[in-house]
Amino acid sequence: MAAALSLVLPPLAAGQTAILQLRILEGEGAVHSAGSRSSHPLSVEVTDETGKPVERAAVSFHLPEEGPGGLFLNGLRTDVVITDAAGRAAVRGLQWNRIPGRFQIRIVASFEQARAGIVSFQYIEGPAAAPPIASSAAPAKGRSHTKWLLLGAAAVGGAAAGILAGHGGGSAPQTAPSAPALSIGTPVITVGKP
Fold first, then answer.
1. Per-residue confidence of the chain (194 residues) as pLDDT tens digits?
2. Which CATH number fits the domain that encloses residue 34?
């Protein structure tokens, strides 16, 4: 015999918010320099099912535990902000780490028994490529390699010229036989059983 499971929730009091809506107003898809502090806020808006702003909702922002990310002003990877009369909450001054890549900030709003969640994608850009060294001492090793390569190429070229000259006795150098020309015949299409 199968057992039935039922969940009984307490009824909502008059005027209690049943559904929250959460949307990002500012800061979505931001690109941050590695090791920098955020100069723009990540701001969200919390409304009820009718679109009316929800004041005093708790909005928690969660940064990843590892990989690209950072810390909030409180020195933690989680911060909680209470919405204002316009239903808005924002975090500012995040300190980004030096790990480049894409990451998510999880955002959860709660008010009374209603909850809503959203994810904000952020990016930490990688370090720029270092410019080449322009000092006169550093490339000396590279120049000596180049010198030896040029001397080797000249020696091989001279040896090849000597061999060609020795075979022809002063006549024009011999050329390698040419490869046979390839041709494609008329295509054949077979219809029916093989």
1. 444 433 344 454 556 778 999 999 999 999 999 999 999 999 999 999 999 999 999 999 999 999 999 999 999 999 999 999 999 999 999 999 999 999 999 999 999 999 999 999 999 998 664 455 554 444 444 444 444 444 444 444 554 444 444 444 444 445 555 555 555 555 555 556 55
2. 2.60.40.1930
Give the CA count within 13 Å in the CB-facing half-sphere of 121: 3
Q: Following CA atoms 86, 25, 114, 107 in sequence, which dihedral angle do they give, to the nearest 10 degrees?
A: -130
Q: What distances in angstroms separate CA 14 from CA 9, 11, 19, 173, 192, one per listed residue?
A: 15, 9, 14, 104, 78
Q: How many domains does the chain have?
A: 1
Q: What is the dihedral of CA 156, 160, 162, 167, to 10 degrees?
A: 160
State which residues form the domain around 32. Answer: 20-125
- Look at the chain and count its residues: 194
Residue 33 lies in a domain: yes
Distance between CA atoms of 81 and 58, rounded to whole angstroms? 6
* 157 falls within a domain: no
pTM: 0.59
150: in domain: no
Does a structural domain hold residue 171? no
CA distance 57 to 42: 16
